[in-house]
Specification:
Elements: E1 3-14, E2 19-21, H1 22-26, H2 33-40, E3 44-46, H3 54-69, E4 78-82, H4 93-101, E5 108-112, H5 118-131, E6 137-145, H6 155-158, E7 163-175, E8 183-191, E9 199-201, H7 205-208, E10 214-216, H8 218-239, E11 249-252, H9 257-266, H10 278-281, H11 288-298, E12 307-314, E13 318-325
Helix pairs in contact: 3-4, 8-9
The structure holds acetyl coenzyme *A.
Acetyl coenzyme *A binds near residues 159, 256 and 313.
């Protein structure tokens, strides 16, 4: 029986020009390149300059994704931005991005806040709408300016995060309805708010009218991230009726190279199949997966026909997985 699937027909990304290295950070707080790189795998990250906003990175990433898809903004039926650092409290950053890009009036626009799992959550929404026949195309973006909610005097957190955006254009395509199809083959999303305070902003609009700074219990996040990322992989592969033997690439949320290594070792995924960008992006939360995907496609690593399993975990806690044949 044939089935409508969402093909990823174009990807794109955008990073701020300004690069902050570990050595730069060691002049700001008591830290060192050695400590940061051995504990996290991060060597540098991109940081937005004054006057650069989340929407700016969304727009550039979307333009690149549309160009790579050979499509125009007029052909997009839905725009969704995953972010915890929107330009304004409201309207949605997706609305602003649509306005700048010149999207058709009437096209639905929304943001989703699922922290580092935001891109998987946003893809779930867009993919469901495509599969139900409500839309034919979607622009799915993950974007952050985390540097605006980092306490630059706190060495426990300021060394971890970066800014940027990644985007994917999804397009409906009729497939056979089995595990040899192209497109998004499965998405699974989860949350458990018993960890609400383990990783959070210490402020909020309703709470105290501020945006606040990132706080986390790093050790606790580290412990829970590993089984959560594994559950994202295993549950999405099971739903896609595939196994680890079928995958060409594992694309994890880029938070920490030690977390990624540990997941890969436990599942016996060869290092050569793991996409790593945390070394030069840092943790860009909702942007991390689409950024890594777009870079890997651009560099020719991920090719048409490759099976990619994606998994993420972040504040909430939220976590999830997704299997795509490109
Ligand atoms: N430079 C130098 N020393 C530091 C720094 C720093 N940047 N940060 C902390 N330290 C010190 C601490 O103060 C502590 O010193 P003390 O022993 O004198 O008290 C020592 O280093 C050890 O600190 P720990 O927090 O125990 O270090 P740990 O080995 O756990 O590494 C880290 C910390 C890297 C944050 C780790 O816990 C981790 O990666 N956790 C996962 C968190 C994460 O990735 N969060 C991202 C968001 S969540 C997500 O995206 C999934």
């Amino acid at each position: 029986m044939s089935l409508i699937r969402s093909h990823i027909v174009g990807t794109g990304y955008s990073l701020p020009a300004k690069v902050l290295t570990n050595d730069d950070l060691s002049k700001m707080v008591e830290t060192s390149d050695e400590w940061i790189s051995t504990r996290t795998g991060i060597r540098s990250r991109h940081i937005a300059s004054e006057g650069e906003y989340t929407s700016d990175f969304c727009v550039k990433a979307a333009q690149m994704a549309l160009k790579n898809a050979g499509m125009k903004i007029e052909e997009i039926d839905f725009i969704i931005v995953a972010t915890v650092t929107p330009d304004n409290t409201f309207p949605a950053t997706a609305a602003k991005v649509g306005k700048i890009l010149g999207i058709r009036p009437g096209v639905a626009a929304m943001d989703v806040n699922a922290a580092c799992s935001g891109f998987i959550y946003a893809s779930q929404i867009a993919d469901n709408m495509i599969r139900l026949g409500q839309i034919k195309t979607a622009l799915v973006i993950g974007a952050e300016t985390l540097s605006r909610i980092v306490d630059w005097t706190d060495r426990n957190t300021c060394v971890l995060f970066g800014d940027g955006a990644g985007a994917a254009v999804l397009k409906a395509s009729e497939e056979q309805g089995n595990n040899t199809d192209r497109g998004i083959l499965s998405v699974k999303i989860f949350a458990d708010a018993s960890h609400y305070e383990t990783l959070c902003s210490d402020s909020g609009v309703s709470f105290n009218q501020k945006s606040g700074f990132i706080h986390m219990d790093g050790k606790e996040v580290f412990k829970i991230a590993i089984p959560s990322l594994i559950e994202g992989i295993e549950s999405s592969l099971e739903l896609a009726d595939l196994t680890l033997k079928d995958i060409d690439w594992y694309l994890p949320h880029q938070a920490n190279a030690r977390i990624i290594d540990s997941v890969a070792k436990k599942l016996e995924i060869d290092d050569s199949k793991v996409i790593i960008t945390v070394d030069h992006h840092g943790n860009t939360s909702a942007a991390s997966i689409p950024l890594a995907l777009a870079e890997a496609v651009e560099s020719g690593k991920i090719k048409r026909g490759d099976v990619v399993v994606i998994s993420s975990m972040g504040a909430g806690f939220t976590w999830g997985g997704m299997v795509v044949r490109i």
